[in-house]
Amino acid sequence: MNEHERGFLTFLSGSTRRRMQVLLERGEKRRNDVRALLPHSVRLDPSFARHLVGTATFPASVEATLRQLGAPPDCYVLAADPALDGRTMPVNAALGAVVGMGESAFISCIPGRLGFYEYEDVKSSYLLVR
Fold first, then answer.
1. CA distance 59 to 44
2. Which of 5, 13, 33, 76 makes an SS bond possible with 108, Cβ 3.0 to 4.6 Å?
3. SS3 of 90, please?
């Protein structure tokens, strides 16, 4: 488990946090299980999750908000899609690959402090700030 994945755990509610932590600690052996949970079984801690609606969910708007809050140029992606999962990539590229695409993913900008989460359901974009 890397620092971004540990940071993701800080944004989760208790039971989800424990479940994900166990899987992430088991490394690559359980990575498919982690990816399978992202679309359906993630409960965010409401103290740190800000639900985004309307134009605030567009990739450019999310990127602007993340930048205002101190996001660096690159981010880490924890995603249901194996092609995106575990990659470090530019924030705009990560958001373009995730937002509105039905791909569940967590984008970590500052581990445990700033990120973005979207799951496959409509109206499911969240800014994560600690």
1. 21
2. 76
3. strand
Q: What are phi and psi of 77, to 5 degrees?
A: -115, 125
HSE (CB half, 13 Å, CA atoms) of 8?
29
pLDDT computed for residue 122 by the predictor: 60
Alpha helices (H) along the chain: 3-9, 14-25, 31-37, 59-68, 91-98
Specify the pLDDT at position 116. 98
Q: Give the number of domains in the chain.
A: 1
The domain of 28 spans 3-129
What is the per-residue pLDDT for 15? 86
Low-confidence ranges of the chain (pLDDT < 50): none
Looking at residue 44, its pLDDT comes to: 94
Predicted TM-score (pTM) of this structure: 0.92
CA–CA dist 12, 115 (Å, integer): 12
